[in-house]
Specification:
heterodimer; A: alpha+beta; 5-stranded antiparallel beta sheet; 13 helices; about 10% strand; B: alpha/beta; 8 strands
Chain lengths: ~400, ~190
């Protein structure tokens, strides 16, 4: 004759105590009217000891716990799922048998799973139970727990639960991280593991799923964090903090300038006055520097770009004086970057520097073939090992300059 | 060696190399301006250079500046000791230009800087600027000495720099970017 009955007539704790005292093996199956989707649970016994439990038989609760803890990789899990699907066993057991997870970790997870499940089942206020001596836990990983201890721990949780629910209302509550803290936060690693998953959208039940740590453990941690002000339970009717800030910032639009667009920086402010330049702007200083070296002030590529499209230079980069040394060792050198472009008189020692040949561009220390592929003259330095990315163009440089200026 | 584009998925990345003598402040400069925690491969020093600093960069420093959604500027710092100069060419490949950082407090390192600059000039025909670290302004005598020892043309920007100050580092980068811009425009005008 099967052992079966109603939970409101014969409580779960009593049934468990009975099965433990008689040294039974098999599965105590519990069902309740379909209300929450988690309506079938089980507690498995081996020789009167509890070897497994779940409050939701439709789910692989133990392996979910392992996955949530990060103890399982994709390959091992895929293989274990395949094995379990074809052989009818549990995924956690397949992982353990394959040596893919630490046995001690699995057993600890199994013990936590048992207590969590019994805690859940103890809170069922109605339902039926039946004992099947043939039923076995598909994920029996060898854990054996004293039923009295399991019940004691589960009861303690049930007693603590109302206080937790007063702080974290339930599995559908949403928690969020406050923008401002009263003091510097201190969190444990377990708390951090939960905090890292809080995004202001996930419900408590989502966090339970993601961590695999069980509803009681997760809610306890959340309640601690809420009590210390590190989390808020989100009030759906309260305005979102970010939305409030954005709305208020939008009010400033009438008194603020629109931000510069790096790619279309066509309008820029007046060039800054340079320190030590006697009130000259960068452009004026640059012009003076050009004049001092006999360079044309306009009609060149640099001049043609105009100040409307090129951000002003923060300082004059050309030296205001000519160096005393004549650089006699570099007769083939063509000095100057833009300021010594072909066609410009860029020499500081007249007669000592040859004009670059057409088809070449000049940079300090070398003469470089231009992008059109003109051949270097015999006077150029040897070919460089490295040349610049040909994708670099003027537009890109303007974006870079605007970007760096805006840092 | 052909220039290699450094492209990220859906965007473009450009590279600036920061080089200079040992303990010139290259790592500090990159850390000051980078938006990410700089990947710096530093090791303790066991030889006689330990007197200058306790650790040195043995491979590279790596910093990032996001210009906009599609453009990122990377900063690569070269190791400052000669025995790691095999890294220079690797780091320099495809660079936009480079910053030669020298220490104003240690003019005796200018010879080392000249050697590095010579190697870079032979390695890459790209614009560069000389940043003089640890000064607010470059004294004319110091400038003369630097230009003479590094064999710099007057057109090469020489910028005073405080590697610990973000605005100062920005000025250095802008000096280089304007030099590159000038070179590109000169090339276009000549084409």
């Amino acid at each position: 004759m099967n052992l079966e009955g109603s939970l409101d007539a014969f409580g779960l704790a009593d049934v468990v105590t009975l099965l433990a005292s008689t040294g039974k093996s098999g599965g105590l199956l519990l069902r309740r009217p379909a209300t929450t989707g988690r309506d079938e649970g089980a507690v498995w016994f081996r020789a009167g000891q509890v070897c497994g439990a779940t409050s939701d038989r439709g789910r692989a609760s133990l392996v979910r716990r392992l996955v949530g803890s990060g103890a399982v990789d994709d390959v091992a899990l895929r293989q274990a799922v395949s094995l379990a699907a074809s052989g009818g066993g549990g995924v956690a057991k397949a992982l353990l048998d394959a040596g893919a997870v630490d046995p001690d970790l699995v057993r600890q997870a199994a013990e936590d799973q048992v207590v969590d499940a019994v805690f859940d089942l103890l809170r069922w206020t109605e339902g039926e139970f039946s004992f099947d001596p043939q039923d076995a836990d598909p994920d029996d990983v060898g854990a054996l727990l004293d039923p009295a201890r399991v019940l004691a721990e589960a009861r303690a949780r049930v007693e603590a639960w109302p206080a937790l629910v007063a702080v974290v209302p339930g599995p559908d509550a949403i928690v969020s991280v406050p923008t401002v803290l009263a003091q510097d936060p201190e969190v444990s690693r377990d708390e951090w593991a939960i905090l890292s998953l809080v995004d202001g959208q996930r419900r408590v039940r989502d966090l339970v799923e993601l961590t695999g740590a069980g509803e009681f453990a997760v809610t306890t941690t959340l309640a601690r964090l809420v009590s210390r002000g590190l989390l808020h339970v989100k009030d759906p009717s309260a305005p979102d903090h970010v939305a409030v800030v954005e709305r208020r910032l939008a009010m400033l639009a009438t008194v603020e300038r629109a931000p510069e667009q790096p790619q279309t920086a066509l309008t820029i402010e007046e060039p800054p006055v340079l320190p030590g330049s006697g009130g000259m702007t960068a452009a004026a200083a640059l012009a003076a520097a050009r004049a001092a070296q006999g360079l044309p002030a306009a009609g060149t590529a640099s001049a043609s770009r105009g100040r409307e499209v090129v951000p002003p230079r923060p300082e004059p980069f050309l030296p205001g004086r000519r160096p005393d040394h004549p650089e006699p060792g570099l007769p083939d050198r063509v000095v100057g970057s833009a300021y010594s472009a072909p066609g410009r008189s860029s020499t500081f020692a007249p007669g000592s520097v040859p004009e670059p040949v057409a088809g070449q561009m000049s940079v300090e220390g070398a003469t470089v073939r231009n992008l059109a592929g003109a051949q270097p003259s015999a006077e150029t330095l040897p070919d460089a090992v490295i040349s610049r990315d040909p994708a670099v163009n003027r537009s890109l440089l303007l974006r870079l300059i605007a970007g760096v200026r805006g840092l | 060696m052909a220039a290699r584009k450094t492209r990220r998925q859906g965007g473009q990345a450009v590279k600036i190399v920061v080089t200079g003598p040992f303990a010139a402040g290259k790592t500090t400069l990159i850390r000051t301006i980078s938006e990410i925690t700089v990947l710096s491969t530093e090791r303790g020093i066991t030889d006689d250079t330990r007197a200058r600093k306790a650790e040195t960069t043995v491979a590279m420093d790596f910093g990032r500046i996001t210009i906009d959604r599609d453009l990122v500027l990377y900063l690569f710092g070269t190791p400052g000791q000669e025995r790691f100069d095999f890294m220079w060419e690797i780091l320099g490949e495809g660079m936009l230009g480079y910053v030669l950082l020298v220490d104003a407090d240690r003019p005796e390192t200018l010879a080392e800087a000249a050697g590095i600059l010579d190697a870079f000039r032979r390695m890459a025909h790209v614009p560069f600027v000389v940043a003089v670290n640890r000064v607010a302004e470059v004294d004319p005598r110091l400038e003369d000495r630097i230009r003479a020892e590094l064999d710099l043309a007057p057109s090469v920007p020489l910028v005073a720099c405080d590697a610990t100050d973000k605005d100062s580092v920005k000025s250095v980068l802008l000096a280089l970017l304007y030099s590159v811009l000038d070179e590109i425009e000169a090339t276009a005008a000549n084409a």
